[in-house]
């Protein structure tokens, strides 16, 4: 997760194209089943970055919503984080 967090930070800071950001979001979704419900280090930071993504294309919006759905159980245990996702 730390690698994905760092890549997402760089992508946002460098205003990289939405395709790069979407690929990082997709990878975050791909590892969702491996994340402990107690994970509190990287996921909150990743989710807080979501509003800063380049939403110039509807595909990244759709991907982001799908990934949020994959983390619905985790977000259910961390409702305070959800407000930062949208």
Please specify the SSE layout and strand pairing:
Blueprint: H1 2-13, H2 18-30, H3 43-49, H4 58-70, H5 72-77, H6 79-82
Q: In total, how many beta strands?
A: 0
Model regions low in confidence, pLDDT < 50 over at least 5 residues: none
Shape: globular
Order of helices and strands: HHHHHH
Largest sheet: none
Radius of gyration: 12 Å
Q: Which whole number gives the mean pLDDT?
A: 95
Distance between the termini: 20 Å
Class from helix and strand fractions: mainly alpha
The number of distinct helices, counting runs of at least 4 residues, comes to 6
Question: How much beta, percentage-wise?
Answer: under 5%
Helix content: 55-70%
Description:
It is a single chain. By secondary structure, the protein is mainly alpha-helical. It has a domain at 1-9 and 41-86. The protein has six helices and no strands. It has helices at 2-13, 18-30, 43-49, 58-70, 72-77, 79-82. The chain is globular and about 30 Å long. The mean pLDDT is 95. InterPro entries: ARM-like (IPR011989), ARM-type_fold (IPR016024).
What would the keywords be for this entry?
6 helices, globular, mainly alpha, 86 residues, 0% strand
Summarize the structure.
The chain has 86 residues and is an all-alpha fold.
